[in-house]
Amino acid sequence: MIDFVCRYFFWFLIYSFLGWLSETLLYMLRDGKVVKRGFLFGPLCPIYGFGAGLCIMLLYGRVHNVFYVFLLGMLLTSTLEYLTHFFMEKIFHAMWWDYSNRRFNIRGRIYLKGCLLFGAGILLLIRGVHPLVVRLTDAIPPRALYIGCFVLYTILLLDVATMVSDLRGTARALKQFQSRMLATTQKGVTQTGEQLEQAKKRIQNSELYRRMTESWAQEDPLIERFRKRYPNFTFKRYKYILDLIKDPPQEDKGRSDIKLYGTADSLPGSEETPDDPDENSETTE
To answer: 227, 218 in Cβ contact below 8 A?
Structure first.
């Protein structure tokens, strides 16, 4: 069992490195510069290692038809790529590849040309590359293979832990930045509203607004004729006449010996009724 696990782990590292190397070379030829591939800090693309290990476990030495190897390899690797993209997007809220601008893609996670290339790669792996890797593995003494796998596993585990911590810190920083941006935007909206309200009050208290209001009032023909006929008329002189017409209530003249029904001081049902209505009345003979 230990020999089986160490062999597959060793193969996983080899194909992860080969995948990283092939992608780095392809992007370097395309862009003219070195582009970091994969999400680990080390020179590994684990998706290639997992894909190769899965196909070796299910196809190597079991499926011999070339077409079936190509078709099954394409289906296995494409499914793995789609699921890897899906879960990494959900967990880390980030994408390491995007095929949405390619033809015949599925949600930007896989596309037809890539699937065909993966199928051809698995065919090359099963028929040509892996037999050589098996001979290389068999040439390593078991003790050296176990120690080497343990050391490499420890390094890989530290790499994964560092990567996860770094991604979480980045995601946390992005969330804090987003929160600050939203708070700043809301503060700006509030301040803008307050500034508009202050500007409105300043306009209403301005001399220009008063003159405009007076000019609008003068547009009434009746008021205009009245002003022309009685140019010296002011409401202050005839305030008592207006008071008689409007008849405002005089608070100091109200009765204090009884509360008005329906007011806050005298709610319905709150009046105290004496037991004997005539108890305190005076009689006159």
So the answer is: yes
pTM exceeds cut of 0.70:
no
Which sign does the torsion angle of CA 186, 188, 191, 196 carry? Answer: negative
CA nearest neighbour of 11 among 51, 63, 40, 42: 51
Beta bridge partners of 110: 106
Residue-level pLDDT at 123 = 95
Q: How many angstroms separate the CA atoms of 58 and 23, rounded?
A: 25
- Residue range 200-231, pLDDT digits in tens: 777 777 776 666 666 555 545 555 555 565 55
Token pair 């068999």: residue: 138
Residue positions counted in the chain: 285
Tell me how far apart the alpha carbons of residues 27 and 33 are, in angstroms, rounded to a whole number.
8
CB 46 within 8 A of CB 9: no
How much is the mean pLDDT over the chain? 76
DSSP H or E stretch at residue 171: helix 142-204
* pLDDT, tens digit (0-9, with 9 covering 90-100), for 162-205: 877 776 666 666 667 667 776 776 676 677 777 777 777 777 77
45: amino acid identity, one letter: C
Kindly state the DSSP code that residue 236 receives in the 8-state scheme. T
Q: Which of 83, 81, 96, 109 is nearest to 163 (CA)?
A: 96
Question: Which tokens in the block code for residue 13?
Answer: 């590292």
Helix (H, G, I), strand (E, B) or coil at 193: helix
One-letter amino acid of 104? F
